[in-house]
Amino acid sequence: MNTSFYCHSPALVALRVFAGLLGITLLVLSASAGKKFDESKLEFIDNGMIKLGVSPDLGGAITYLSKSGRDKNVINNHDWGRQIQMSFFGGPVPYEERGQKPKKHWAHIGWNPIQAGDDYGNGSQIVEFTKKEMSLYVKCIPKQWPLNNIPGECTYESFVELKGNTVEVRCRLVNARSDKTQYPGRHQELPAVYTNGEYYRLMTYRGNKPFTGDKLARIPKKVGGGFPWKYWLATENWAALVNDHDWGLGIYKPNNSLFIGGFAGKEGRGGTHDSPTGYIAPLHTEILDHNITYEYDYSLILGSLDEIRGYALEQAKGTMPPDWKFASDRQHWRYEANGGKGADAGWPIKGHLQLDLGKPCIAAISPPVLWQAKEAPMLFIEAAFKTERKEGMVAWTNYEADGHNPGFKAENQLRFDIIGDGKLRTYQVDLKSTPTYLGALSYLMVKPVIEPDQGGWVKIKGIRLGK
User: Fold this and answer.
1) What would you report as the CA-atom Rg of the chain, rounded to the nearest whole angstrom?
2) Which residues of the chain have pLDDT under 50?
3) Pairing state between β 166-175 and 293-304
4) Burial of 315 (0-12, 13-18, 19+ CB in 10 A)
């Protein structure tokens, strides 16, 4: 990875995030393909509008969703890498355990426990399950996808509740890894959603005028072979896979713009155990520490395209400029440095992000989020610096609809003065003083110092864009 721009070079730099997504299962034949779980064991909840089922054989992954009274499942179960399920990625790459090595086509995946089971057809173990009339809770020990019957050193929890035609879900990862290395951030599927072949039209909003009723976009199926999915910025935080009548399944994830998805196989046909499938996953790029507890929420909406978008608009608060407070988590920020050694002081986060300024070209990169320059002419960084250096730098990217790989141009940067006495201050950076700070923007980068300083550190309490 070329991070020289952060030190000296005026060249454009694209920050590439290594992400091995479950969607790659479509390119190879999984050993779990064609295996059918015992559908008589499914645990169902039904509120009179929608009916949801989870499989005790597959770690409590969501394997069934339909209208009430209509036995037509929209969820794809062709192999154990489909369903609607939790999935996380980390290092090392490749991941080996107990003498097992992944097959060559899985070597890039790395550490990848998934809720349903593994590539060999072994289901994940449920360790706790409760069900009420409209809700259920499941806790499982997931399996390492590329290995044979190897449990992850972690637990997954899902809290599922039916409300009208929606499914409200809260998920929790609790890591207890023996490998205490802090690996670089990777894309995480939050969650992975797979639908049947009938629901092949991938719809979303990815423009720069969200929540205004602006025209929707269809993400077309990729052709020509290779990786089947596309990335985009879903600036209303939702996407849907619908049929020819604009009816299907949508997912809304609050404050989450980066999505991946698409369709693979014959469009418009295929049932729950057939290969054709649509895919959606909201993504964040996350560092998963050996001892992290990581939680996220999402909503599934079963209905018309208008109903799906309407739900998202109802939940949204509009496009306020970002305000990141690092009280107890990283707020989806990640790090880059020369040699890929960007890291912080580790989990738990105790009121700030602490970075080692001795790392060459250390930089913190925000998650993608749409903001308008005119609404946020100033940047406020609440931080304490302990360093001999006198300057830091910030940079930003112009909004691009498919901007999953941010490129920071030399003209989109601004240096600011810092005081290295270790005291907490709020630094105000006048972004509007730069002629290129205009229009719709989507990523922010903060480089605490221009040159490394061995023994130096910074503690960042918050970062805010505004006036």
Assistant:
1) 22
2) 1-6, 8-22, 24
3) antiparallel
4) middle
Three-state SS at 339 = helix
Q: Is 104 helix (H, G, I), strand (E, B) or coil?
A: helix
Contacts of 358 (CB under 8 A, 6+ apart): 452, 453, 454, 455, 456
Residue 122 burial by Cβ neighbours in a 10 Å radius (0-12, 13-18, 19+): buried
How does DSSP assign 185-208, residue by residue? PEEEEEEEEEEETT--EEEE--SS
Phi, psi of 57 (to 5 degrees): -75, -20
Domains of the chain, each with CATH number or no CATH: 22-315 (2.70.98), 320-466 (2.60.120.260)
315's enclosing H/E stretch is helix 305-315
* 271: Cα within 13 Å, side-chain hemisphere: 6
- 122-127 long-range contacts (CB < 8 A, ≥24 apart) are 122/148, 122/149, 123/37, 123/55, 123/57, 123/58, 123/59, 123/80, 124/58, 124/59, 124/61, 124/151, 124/156, 125/59, 125/151, 126/56, 126/59, 126/60, 127/155
The angle formed by the CA atoms of residues 453, 454 and 460, to the nearest 5 degrees, is 65
In order of 108, 337, 386, the CA distances from 365 in angstroms are: 23, 11, 21
| Cβ-contact 189, 142 below 8 angstroms | no
CB proximity list for 259: less than 8 A, separation 6 or greater: 204, 231, 232, 233, 234, 239, 280, 281, 282, 283
For residue 307, report the phi and psi dihedrals to the nearest 5 degrees: -65, -40
Distances (CA, A) of 163 to 42, 276, 354: 20, 29, 41
Phi-psi region of 392 (alpha: psi -120 to 50; beta: other; left: phi over 0): beta
Q: What are phi and psi of 45, to 5 degrees?
A: -130, 145
- Answer for the pair 141, 127: CB distance below 8 angstroms, yes or no: yes
Q: How many residues does the structure list for the chain?
A: 467
Buried b or exposed e, range 331-365, using 16+ CB within 10 angstroms: bbbbbbbbeeebbbeebebeebbbbbbebebbbbb
Question: Per-residue pLDDT tens for 306-359?
Answer: 999 999 999 886 668 999 999 999 999 999 998 777 789 999 999 999 999 999
Token readout for 83 is 């369903």
pTM exceeding the 0.70 threshold for the entire prediction: yes
How far is the C-alpha of 108 from the C-alpha of 21, rounded, in Å?
10
